[in-house]
Design brief:
The chain is mainly alpha-helical and 108 residues long. It has one domain. The chain is 85% helix and 0% strand. The protein has five helices and no strands. The chain is globular, with a radius of gyration of 16 Å.
C-alpha cells in the first residue's frame, strides 16, 4: 500500500469514526431531552435486526450499540459511569486522530 493510499484510508477511517461519535452524542442528547424513549426505540430496533445484519451494525457502528446497551441494561451506576468515560475517551482518540490526519494532509 502506498503512502497516498495509506493517507486516504486514515482519512476515511477518521471521518467514519468522527461521524459515528457525532451521531452518538447528538443522539444521546436528543434522547435525554425526550425522556429516553428514543434510546429505547433504537435499542429495540437494533435487537430486532436479523443476526447477520445486527452483527454488521455492531461491528460498523460499535460505539452506538454500546451506548444503547448501557442505557437500556440495568447496570450499577458505577458501570454506566465507566462506559460513559470510556465513550468520552474513545471519542477523544477518534477526533485527535482525525485532527492529526488532517494536519498531516495540509502540510503536504
Amino acid at each position: 500500500m502506498g503512502a497516498a493510499t495509506d493517507q486516504r484510508l486514515r482519512l476515511f477511517l477518521g471521518l467514519w469514526a468522527s461521524a459515528l461519535f457525532a451521531l452518538l452524542w447528538a443522539g444521546l442528547v436528543i434522547s435525554a431531552l425526550s425522556g429516553g424513549g428514543l434510546a429505547l426505540d433504537a435499542w429495540r430496533a437494533l435487537s430486532e435486526l436479523p443476526p447477520v445484519v445486527g452483527l454488521a451494525v455492531w461491528i460498523l457502528g460499535l460505539p452506538i450499540p454500546v451506548a444503547l446497551w448501557a442505557s437500556q441494561a440495568e447496570l450499577p451506576a458505577l458501570v454506566v459511569a465507566f462506559v460513559v468515560v470510556g465513550l468520552v475517551a474513545w471519542t477523544s482518540v477518534a477526533w485527535v486522530g482525525l485532527a492529526r490526519t488532517l494536519g498531516t494532509r495540509s502540510r503536504r
